Structures are given as structure tokens and as C-alpha cells.
Amino acid sequence: MTVFSLIIINKAGGLIYQREFQPGLRKLSTNDYLVLAGTFHGVHAITRTITPKLPYLATTPASNTSTTTSSTPTSATALASPSGTTTPIPNTTSTAATYMYPIPGVAATGLDSLETDKFRLTCFQTLTGTKFLLFTDPHMANVEPVMRKIYEFYADFVMKNPFYQLEMPVRCEAFDRNLNGWLRGRT
Amino acid sequence: MSYYFTILSPTDVPLFNIAFGTSKSGGDGIARFRFPDTAQYMNQFIIHSSLDMVEEAQWMNGNMYLKHIDTYPPASAYISAFLTPSGARFLLLHQPPQLPSTAASASGTSGSILGGSFSASALGGGSSRASASSVAANPTSPQTEEAVRQFMGEVYENYVKTVMSPFYRQGMEIRSSVFRSRVTAAGRKWL
Amino acid sequence: MAQPPRHAAMLSLSNSNSNSNSNSNSNLSTASDSRQPAHLATASHSSTGLRVPSNRKTIYDRHLNRSRNAELSRASFAFLFAEMVTYAQRRVTGIQDLERRLNEQGYPLGLRLLDLLFYRTISGSTSSALSSSSSTSASPPNRPLRILPLLHLIHGPLWRLLFNRPADALEHSVSPDTPNEYMITDNDPLVNTYISVPKEMSMLNCAAFVAGIIEGVCDGCGFEAKVTAHNQPTEMWPGRTIFLLRFGESVMEREKVLERAGVK
Q1: Looking at the keywords, is Transport present (chain A) (predicted)?
Q2: Residue B32 lies in a domain
Q3: Residue A10 domain-assigned?
């Protein structure tokens, strides 16, 4: 049940938070962390783009007019449409109108987790595009509740703090204190 | 009985005032003061002159309702006071209607003597409109005190509602016509 | 299709917002109404430009105890307070200036709360919410005349009204030089729950807003005072805050007079 460290990346791919939770863990240099955050951000975007898509077998030829999308009853059309601004699919191209995701109605999420035999990296992306990367023991089960609690702390002690500026590095003493206290209480 | 009610801010700025008459025992709710119509400012004079008494009583008595605190014998005007915790003063001047006996007894300085003579006159002659009601005729009787207390309590409730309005700042004149009609209704109900 | 109803709803909203003071063109100015017959006062209700909400309910028709036991979302308060701090932070010259602005935001609240608190104590005669105050359920509470009852009022009923619990400590300054100083301690002020003050502003305590509320209550009761909020963290309570109340000269003089007069 070991949580090694946490990284938070803002929606532009910048590193805004990095903490280790195990004493004496070897640290990378600040620059390396920044590169790591930017690289992961790029890889995450690529994984979304390369999500396989199936050909969309529509009875009516898929048109590229934007007005039809909101009135079509199937969500698949809305998802695959290039003008579906309400659905979070950033990688739609003009040819995507005739393709759809394997499970219609579910947007591509991109990289969820990355596992080696020494550690597991779990990625959680909020609705606003902030990414939480959690480095844990590969044998640790139930990463999901830990992630959810971290998100809760973030929503409470970062987003409700009048001195926090959006997209800027997180320097909130109450966030650190509560996060550390909670993680220590778990082990 | 005629009434003149005023609300003063802690710094003695008049926030609200209204004149009305009794509605008990056939009263028509119209104020009939003893001063000529050209001398209505007398009410304000008398009420403001009682402020010294209020400020003296304010720190000796922790109640919000200070009861009858001042009398102005020449006009047989009685003043009851109510203090809100935030320092606003509610002052009610009540003046019994002119009676033949009033002029004689008004020379007495003590309110209780006056009150005694009034209740006596109320018991004696039942024909006149004012003397038919014991509440209206006797400004210092327990019934009157209780009626004034109820009146003040009801005004206080509406005052708190005014104060809680986000558009009201302390010390602002209360100009709401709803408030005015509420005070009028309270007067009709209790006085 | 959805346009007309939405518009109507907005209209009624704006009505309800302005009902409390939109009657400025009332024909009853205070200077003249003593000369007017009283019955005009009631008649004017319909003739003024007063706009009443569509459901005909003004603030005077709502009961003051309606929200007595209502609960407020902590998150929405936190967001609101965060915006208040951000607002106060605009064009400030320093930390003291920021604290002063927060204090000024709280001050009018204190004045209002005082009246509301007493009203609720009178009307809610069960007095369970105010059991620690000296008042009995039958008689209305007394206005505080001395410093100690005032402090108990703040420590108990006011804190319960605001935060649903009493404050954690009430102390008198031990120094003989400052007999006019009192301290109220809150181990974990609600307003600071989600706030982390940056290191370069470590002196700042956003509970200055609460200090302003206390100051409003003291001033409203006729106790001139300056109230400030200070950080005093402990291992157990990192957000512990002390509210320092400094009463003015006039209050201390009156206190001596009242003590001699035997007023409690």
C-alpha cells in the first residue's frame, strides 16, 4: 500500500505540484520534473489521438453541416461530428465524421495508467484538464479512492484558497498538511 | 388617545416617524393632539427632550423595553421607550384626549398622580369616547404598559427585517411604505 | 420558446431585489408626515411606485425564524469568502490595509446580527440555542451593560449563530497595563478552513473579517472597541486564532461607574 509521489500538471502541460510521500526518495532535478510533466502531457494527447476508431455505418451519409448534429438522435453522430463542441473530443478531424469510437458515447480518455514491475503510474484528468499523476506500488489495489481523495483535497484547499492563482504552482500549506496527514493515516 | 412614534438612530438621527390615534373602543385611528395643527413640532420637541432620560436609564436597566420613562405635564404627554440591542431607540409619545379634568390634574408633576386622576375620571364618566377605554385613558396603567410593550415588540420585528435587508445601512432613514403600513397595523392592533 | 418565461422570471427577481428600497418616490417624507393625517399613510401603500414581487411577498412577509435552523453549504460559503478576500485584496497597500478592509466588510454584519440574535432569542422561547446565556426562557434577554456579559454574548450565542458552536476560550489580559484587553480564541476558524496564506504574507489572518463582526457587535451595544485577529498556531491547531478586543477609554470609565452603581 505504498504511495510514492504525486505530480499535478495543469491544462497547458506545466508542472504545478510535485511531492514525495516516502522519506528519502531519490529526487529528480526541478528541470527533469518539468520535462517529465511536459512529455507526459504530450504522450497523453497522442494516446487520445491514436485511439482506434471503427467505421461509422450510417444510413444517411454523414454530412459536415454543423446544424444537424444537435438534432440527430444517436449520440454516436454527435460524438463523431467535427462540430460537436459539447463533447470533449479534441482530436476530431474532418475525416472523423465517418468514424466512431468502439464504445459510442464514451469519449477517448487517453493514457490511464502506465505499469512497470517496479511502479505504477495512474493518471486522472479533471474536467478542466488538470492531470493528477500518482506513482504507487504496482501491487497496490484501490488506487481509485486515493485519487478521488487527493482530488477532493485539491478542490478544497487549492481551489477554495483566495491566494491561489489558477494554473500557477500550488503553494498551499493546508493542502500539503491535509494530504500528508491523510496519507500517513492510511498506512 | 393620540400617539406619535419615532425611531432614532444611536446618534439621534430620526429614521422614521408616524402619528396616529387610537383604534380601541371606537377610535378612528386619527391623531388629535392638543396642540394646534400649526404646532405639531411640539411632539418632536417633547420626544427629543426625553432622550436624556433614555440615556440615563439605558445603562441602569438591561431590558429592551424601558416602559414609561418621561412625562411632559404641560401637554400631559407620556413617553415610553424601547431600545434595540444595536442602539436604535423607539420612542412613543402618547397623549390622552383633552378632558375637563385634565387641566386641573396636569399641574401635578408625578405621572402616577396623573394616572390616578385619569383612571378616576375614566371610572366616573363613561360617556366620552376616550374614557370608555381604560387602556387609552390611563397612560401609566399596567394594561397600557403591556399594550405598548406588545406594540414595540411588533415594530421591533419589522425593524429587524428592515435592518437585515442588504440594501439598508445603519443610520439610513426607513422609507419603506410596507414598513409604515406594518407599524400602522401594529398601532391599530395594540393601541 | 423558452424565452418569455425566462424573461418573466428575471423580471420578478429584479422586483424582489428592489422591493426594500424602491419606494423612494413615496409621497410621505418624514419632514411632512407629522402634519398629514395618519390614514394617508396606509392609503399611500398602493399609490406609490412600490414594486412588489410577483408572489406579493416582501421581506416583511417572511418570518425571521424561517432560516433559523437552515444549513448553509460550506463550499459555497468558502467560495464566496474566497472572492471577498480577492476583492478586498485589490489595490491594497499592505497586509494591514487588507485586514482593515476585511474588518470593514464584517462590521455591518455585526450590527445586523445583534438585532437578529436578540429577536430570535425573544421569539424562540425554547432557548435551547442559547442555553449558556444568562437569560431565562420566559423573559427576553437583557442588553449587555457590562463588558463581561457582552463577552459571554459573543463567546456563546453569537458564535453559535455564526458557526454552530461556542468559541474555544475567553480570557482577560493578565498585564496590569492593559486591563481593557480581552481575548477570544477560536481553535479552527471556519473562515480560514480552506485558506493557506502565502509565506510572504504570514502576518495576515483572514479572520479579520470575523474580527469586524465582533467589532460591529461591540459597537452596536455601545462598547467602543477595536478588534483584531492574530495567528497563534499550536501543534494540534495550526489555524488557531486569537481575537484581541481592545475597549476604548470611555467604555472603561463607564465600567467603573457602573461597578460602583452595582449594575450587573
Answers
A1: yes
A2: yes
A3: yes
